[in-house]
Amino acid sequence: MNLNVELSTPEKVGDLVNLIVESGGELKMIRCIPNPQECSVSVSVIDLRAGEDMINTLLNRGFAVKVMEELRR
User: Fold this and answer.
1) Rounded to an integer, what distance in angstroms lies between the CA atom of residue 47 and that of residue 32?
2) pTM of the full structure
3) pLDDT > 90 fraction of the chain, expressed in percent and rounded
4) C-alpha angle with apex 59: 4 to 27, nearest 5 degrees?
5) Where are the domains of the chain?
6) Quick one: average pLDDT of 52-63?
7) What would be the CATH architecture of the domain defined by 2-69?
8) Smallest Cα–Cα separation from 10: which of 56, 49, 41, 51?
């Protein structure tokens, strides 16, 4: 599962990275545009269940999450 997380400010990157690591995700890319209102983080999660748990955790913490790709076997 590949996720894109939009941040309201770049200062939230540290909180997001900690949540990703604690949830077992893999951080793929952090992209912050010079405009401080635009920052997005790409995350990969190998296990579908872990991905769903991560989405719920991020949403509960106020992050905007979009599923970019969901692979099922």
Assistant:
1) 27
2) 0.71
3) 1
4) 35
5) 2-69
6) 88
7) 2-Layer Sandwich (3.30)
8) 41
Distance, in Å, from the CA atom of 60 to the CA atom of 63, rounded to the nearest integer, reads 8
As given in the structure block, the two tokens for residue 33 are 């545009």
Tell whether the torsion through CA atoms of 59, 12, 29 and 6 is positive or negative: positive
Section 17-33 average pLDDT = 77
Reference 39, options 2, 3, 8; nearest CA is: 8
Contact of 1 with 69, CB cutoff 8 Å: yes
Break the chain down into helix, strand, coil percent, rounded to 5.
35, 35, 30
